[in-house]
Amino acid sequence: MSCTTSDSAGLDPCVLRDELLELWHLKDQQMLHLAALGGFSRLPEPLEDLLSILEGCPGKQKGRSHTAGHCILMEFQAWRKKHPQVTLSALSEQQASTLQQRALLLVADNQSTFIESLVDIYQLKSVDGTILQQHIVRLQALNLYKEAAMLGMKLQRQKELDLEEMCVPLILLNKLSLAESFVTGHSHLEKHLVTLLDSWCHPSFSLEEICRRFSRLSVSRHCMDQIQPKMLTKHVFRLMEKFNIDQGLCPNALHKRRLDTLRFLMYSRFMEKSMTEENWCDHVQYVVEDDPQLQVQLVQMLVKHAGLEKASQWSLKYNVPRNQLPIGVWETQQDLPPHLQQVDPNKPEQTKSMPPPSTCEKFYQVPLTEERIHLVDTPEVLSRCQKVVLKEGGVVGVDMEWQPTFGCSSSQQVALMQLAVTDQVFLLDVCAEGFGQHPETVSFIRSLFSSKNVLKLGYSTSGDLRCVLSTWPQFSEEPLVTQGVLDLVNVHQKIQRSKVNRTQNGSKEVLVGEGSAEKGLSLLVQQVLGRPLDKREQMSNWKKRPLRASQIRYAVADAYCLLEVYTVLKSNPAHFGLPDDLQNISSRQSEKSKGKKPKEQQTEQIKQPQGKEECQRAQRVSRPHSDKEKDLLCGEKPSADSPPLPPQQLRVVCDNMLQGLGRTLRCLGVDVVMLENSDDHRVAAKLARAEGRVILTCGQPFLTLRSQVGEGRCLSLDCSEKAKDQAVRVLRHFNVQLTPSDIFSRCQVCNSNRYAAVSRQDMARMLQQKGFLQEWDTECAQDEETTPGLTLDLPRYSQHCQWVALSDLDPDTMTFPGGAPLQLHSVPPGLLPRVPHFYVCTRCGKVFWEGSHYDRVVSMFEELLHVSAPESAAEPTDVALQDSSVKSSQTWNVTSE
């Protein structure tokens, strides 16, 4: 219907809307801006007419920043700044209330920036609280939980809303971040959310009961997998730190973390045998503390791993009641001789000088005598240390040790700081009473790190500096300036990326991917100096005094080896594929961050892995500088002239650290199986062998998985990259020929490619049947094709899918033969007038429709798309895949985000 107007009556909003939409589709932003500014000035009632325009814009539901409605609203905001007289207060109370009600209906369907503008223009915060609350409750009743939470936040009504009714559905839908935003800034709500998550960590927690409480909510398997104790515990500890909440309020998560740590300690001591008896005893006592349940579980584990005698000793130490002891422990207690009835983790160390010859031959040894190692625990000794360490032009190896907390505490404080120079090593005992926080100690550390005339060598210095800030808060109040620091982890990454073949001491060096058990600094020392570090004391109780001789040897070696590695690398950098000036080598992350704004760089730094094992990133594949640098595979790469491969023929299995990549590849038509969070990495190898898939993994699991599958069947990727970049590299490596018709040919949720086509009329009928739609105007659909099944217009990816008849759907239960329910709740009723056809995944029941997401995916992967010639369908249909009616603005939307 056309609309006309006269200058005297002002511009009709229908005319302005049509003009702006036409310019929007032509992508003429400049003309749209000019037309909007002039058009708004000619509207008789700008505030009322704006709502009419927005209500008539297509695609307002689940609005994105590039929709026409959003663009028009932003233009109105710009126009309004020049016309401050256009306010709601200029209208009568009745008129204002009517406009606010209409604005609320728009708010419910759109994204954050859209909502903010409407709240501002129509002063929605001033609406009666009862009306706002009723509106939010109505959204919840329609299962629009995300929209309800967003509206509640924008209107600042969090305190008046029931937290569990608002946040539990968000958590079930894997939108915990939105729940966090909902409570942030409200201390009682923050505490309530964290304690709620902690209650879910209790062994008796039943997810089924929660799902029954929100029975109208359809929870996917992926979302269900996120609600398991390990993930929940991780979130609880993260939020405790974020909101500064006392650990005592989260006993279940704390118990779960300690129990997991206890299992780890058992495995390290009795299976891997990588932990000394002294260290094991120290950590067990720290973890178990005064928790009676953990004490009982400790005894039970010891019976399995170490036998009845050791279990009896620890049961006596903690006075475990007889009725809670495993079978045989009580009887063994009675037979223990007196000298074995007590656990004695503090027995003196036998060897206080040199380690045994076997250790000297196997591991790197420091070429210093005992008298060249100095313990610094007083200001007087520190003064002598300062004169040596801060000598201008000097080189100092810097390392630190701290007490392992196994994730039970977020705060890790320095216990020992090692400073190595050419002929001696200083050990700063930060735990010594009155020394760690002494003004002279603090001043010395500040001077050391800020001196640009003293070269400080470290390995993963970001982790060390993080502990420094935790130990000395004054460095946060008056920021610690770091100059003259060379992080050898960056040098190590450069060596790993080098193509130069090197030998050291006549033997082939151990490189990542060649089965080396070493990693991090120990691997670098082995590559450069020939022998790795002895890391058995790494996880010591570094706060316990006096330190054992073996701990001192480990601490000295960790700092002094940095000097020797630097000396060797500097003497012959070309041998290791390095530039002449090692200090010019920056981290790969820093190189990628060049050109970014300071705020973006800060965000990247926060996301970098922390701690001593940061060099595990050296095992990842760096971003190639050209298309020819496809060094993803650690096995044999496909030949350069390998034939093009359609996405449907690439079958992969992604480990649980690459789920984002897995969903992206599914979006592009690749057959992807993704491991669940609870799956062992070895499951990937089983699937790869059984189904002929390629394993996509990252980090340490690669070394294990590579040997379990055929040559070239295991791919290592960089976890720090975005899923889009990972996907591009995988497709290029396998020479996958991606076409527009491949996009969305698989369900991103469940990997299925079997769909049922549903007409608008059938969808409206089913929505009415299940109570999701009250009224439906049949006149707008009377000319539609009513024959079900494949007679509907199929989307562009139809040739890569299997289409089933809608008659396969059980009309009573609305389920497909496999048991998947049709997710009708996710279809907004307001979508029906604009969407003629819907497409349903028959495996998971997810509903899709043509929207705006397709163009974004095409834009993301346009460098890989092959569109030189039209594609023909696999079999004749009455649908022309290249039909001009399929506009470029049409695409595929997922109903729940």
From TrEMBL:
It holds the Pfam family Mut7-C. GO terms for molecular function: 3'-5' exonuclease activity; nucleic acid binding. Residues 589-602, 624-634 have a biased composition (Basic and acidic residues). Residues 587-648, 873-897 are annotated as: Disordered. Residues 373-574 form the 3'-5' exonuclease domain. It comes from the Eukaryota. InterPro entries: 3'-5'_exonuclease_dom, Exonuclease_MUT-7-like, Mut7-C_RNAse_dom, RNaseH-like_sf, RNaseH_sf. Residues 882-897 have a biased composition (Polar residues). One of its GO terms (biological process) is nucleobase-containing compound metabolic process. This is 3'-5' exonuclease domain-containing protein.
